[in-house]
What does this fold into?
Amino acid sequence: MKTITISEDSAEIRALLEQARDEDVIVRLADGSEFVLSAIDNFDIEIARTRQNEKLMALLDERAKQTQTISLDEVKRRLGLSS
It folds into this structure.
C-alpha cells in the first residue's frame, strides 16, 4: 500500500474527502476506471501492513491447510492438567 500526501486546496478533493469520512465513495473516471475512496482507521492500516508480511501470510496459509486437531482432553493431559 502506498501513501500519498495531497493538499486540500482543491474544493473538489476536499468535498470527496468529506464524503468519504461518512461512507465509502466510488470515483469513476471518464474512461470507466473506478476507485474506492474510504476513510481508514489505525486498525485498517495494521491489517494492510500485516497482509504485506509475506512470511506471516505463508505461515497462515500453511496452518489453514492443517486438518489434524487435538482434543481438549489430550491438551490437558499433555499439560499435566488432567483431573
The chain has one domain: 1-83. The CA atoms of residues 8 and 50 lie 29 Å apart. The longest strand covers residues 25-28.
